[in-house]
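Field log, afternoon session.

UNIT: design team B
ACTIVITY: writing a sequence onto a fixed backbone
BACKBONE:
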């Protein structure tokens, strides 16, 4: 499978985008847990990422609340079901791991949901940052709890003015 990648700046640090011919395969932050080795990202080539970068810029400008990008997610059937549920969490809202487990038909699977959530290869676009612990606590995030806190604050309207960044967003590195 032909893979390509590019790195672009964001208000949350550099983002590495990885794609196949089928769609976006990865969106990785610096120091992200479960980040694959760079040699698996394919050749550097910013051309396949024009639309993804445009939509990310609109998201960071507060103009886009749901991404419309072809995705090429690989994972176990359970992980894929969890990631599909993440896509249903509305912008600015959160769900708990337990709520997602119940929606999957197994209310005792919150830990498994958390593990699948942590393996999400396309953060931000597949909004794993919108999942919180019971009682509203911020638990685990592959990109770090500070980034999770900032993303949730941004989506709730209480975050920093990331819109100032949007004009410069998308410059490949």
């Amino acid at each position: 499978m032909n893979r390509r990648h590019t790195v672009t700046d964001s208000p949350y640090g550099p983002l590495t985008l990885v794609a196949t011919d089928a769609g976006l395969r990865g969106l990785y932050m610096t120091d992200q847990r479960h980040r694959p080795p760079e040699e698996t990202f394919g050749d550097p080539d910013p051309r396949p990422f024009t639309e993804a970068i445009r939509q990310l810029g609109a998201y960071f400008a507060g103009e886009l609340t749901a991404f419309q990008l072809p995705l090429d997610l690989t994972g176990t059937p359970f992980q894929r079901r969890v990631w599909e549920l993440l896509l249903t969490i509305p912008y600015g809202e959160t769900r708990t791991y337990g709520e997602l487990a119940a929606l999957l038909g197994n209310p005792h699977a919150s830990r498994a949901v958390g593990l699948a959530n942590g393996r999400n290869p396309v953060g931000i676009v597949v909004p794993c940052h919108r999942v919180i612990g019971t009682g509203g606590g911020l638990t685990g995030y592959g990109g770090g709890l500070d980034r999770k806190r900032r993303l949730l604050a941004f989506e709730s309207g209480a975050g920093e003015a990331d819109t100032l960044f949007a004009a410069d967003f998308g410059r490949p590195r």
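LOG NOTE: The CA atoms of residues 97 and 113 lie 6 Å apart.
NEXT ACTIVITY: expression trials, pending approval
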